[in-house]
Amino acid sequence: MDEYEGFFRAATTSQRFTFGEPLSTSNNIYILDQEMKIAGRLEGLAPSEKIYSVRYFGPRAYLVTYRQIDPLFTVDLKDPYNPKVLGELKIPGYSDYLHPFDENHLIGIGKELSATQPIPVDETLEKQTLTMPVPPRTAEPYLKIGLFDVSDPSNPTLSQLAVHVRKNCEIEGFCCLRKVNKTAIKRILDEQPVQPHKTNYYLVRKDPEFDTKMAQVLVVYQEVNQFNDDINLYSDHKKATVSYDEKPGIQAIAGIAKDLPPEPGKYKSWGRDYEYRRLGTLSLLAGIDLHDGFILSLIRERHRSLEFTEFLQVLHEHYDPAWQIRVILDNHSAHVSKETMQWLKQYPNRFEFVFTPKHGSWLNMIEMFFSKMTRSFLRSLRVSTKEELKLRINQYLDEVNADPVIFKWKYRLDELTV
């Protein structure tokens, strides 16, 4: 249901049962004026089906019904006294949620159900000998997400590719594709060795020394593994290795309403309101000792040279003065700034920096910990203040350090010799 310019609009599915006859259903749209009297109606849409989702978008309504095929109806409600169907699209499955992407596109989220036989593309193709390839279906429904192009309300389509095929198919001698939809086109293209409807992204290597720097990092990991296997070798070497990086922009998010705890027979899981308030962000500067898994950390508002040298001071105070501290880190400007270089002069030969290549942060072992932290802790965290966020992060790190995990790098180490 919806209200627009003083009129109340509602879409309904009605059912009628007559003894000895099958259940009959019909779908309708009613428009009521301010006195709640019916001003206009549209009845009898998609007989024997039922409504799964409706989205009102200004003077239009988009309606999905379902039985075996998912019809998307475009309904013109500009004249509330005379609503009319502008167009209809049929695809397998159904969409039980519709969301406007922009004024010309609509996102449909739903399921595509199992079927023992291929579902015909449309009635025209069903009568022809062409059989569209359909992938094997399982007994369980699977997720379907579609993007509907509704720029032409009389002919809603899934993409411009389907429009192009229908427009040019007769010229190329494929008359059977005059009413083909994107679902059928996708199934055909997915079986081909060339798939121009898809795009895979790659990253250009902008560091001419990428391989050399990567090898240097991997050599360090190989050496760390050897030290971890022989504790006496590690003690004699007197060099600690720390994988370091910053995790900026950790949001302090507060809930609008209280969380609802689980209740037997009522709520299986925690209930949380979708809305929230942003209270600001914090930056976590952290390093993981690759020999014992201990996390050294610093939480600050920013992550400049000032904060980085403050973290180096944490490392300096943590380790034996007779040991050297080797740090694996990326090429952030704060790591090589004048302020950082000036600070390092206070402790000659105390620190050794091993830089990852540009666009090679995935080589830094601390990223594994940040990923785990995000998935297991930060993703569902709600706090009332930024100070509470800081306390909760420190509490999490204390729990991790109570039972530390030693991360071990394996990728491409078999190609190296130390």
What does this 3D model show about the protein?
It is built from 9 helices and 16 strands. It is an alpha+beta fold and 418 residues long. The protein folds into 2 domains: 2-190, no CATH class; 211-415, Nucleotidyltransferase, domain 5 (2-Layer Sandwich). A hairpin with a 7-residue loop joins strand 2 (7-16) and strand 3 (24-32). Helix 4 (210-229) crosses helix 5 (231-237) and helix 6 (305-318) runs parallel beside helix 7. The relative contact order is 0.08.
Question: What are the key terms here?
Answer:
5-stranded mixed β-sheet, 32% strand, Nucleotidyltransferase, domain 5, 2 domains, 4-stranded antiparallel β-sheet, 418 residues, alpha+beta
In short:
Helices cover 24% and strands 32% of the residues. The chain has nine helices and 16 strands. It has helices spanning 123-126, 160-168, 182-190, 210-229, 231-237, 305-318, 338-344, 366-378, 386-402, and strands spanning 2-4, 7-16, 24-32, 38-45, 50-57, 60-66, 69-76, 84-92, 94-102, 105-112, 142-149, 239-255, 276-289, 295-300, 324-329, 351-355.
Overall, the morphology is elongated
CATH superfamily caption of the largest domain: Ribonuclease H-like superfamily/Ribonuclease H
Report the sheet with the most strands, covering strand number, pairing sense and barrel closure: 5 strands, mixed
Helix-strand makeup class: alpha+beta
Tell me the span between the first and last alpha carbons: 70 Å
Which secondary structure elements does this structure contain, and how are they paired or packed?
Elements: E1 2-4, E2 7-16, E3 24-32, E4 38-45, E5 50-57, E6 60-66, E7 69-76, E8 84-92, E9 94-102, E10 105-112, H1 123-126, E11 142-149, H2 160-168, H3 182-190, H4 210-229, H5 231-237, E12 239-255, E13 276-289, E14 295-300, H6 305-318, E15 324-329, H7 338-344, E16 351-355, H8 366-378, H9 386-402
Parallel strand pairs: 12-15, 15-16
Antiparallel strand pairs: 1-2, 2-3, 3-4, 5-6, 6-7, 7-8, 9-10, 10-11, 12-13, 13-14
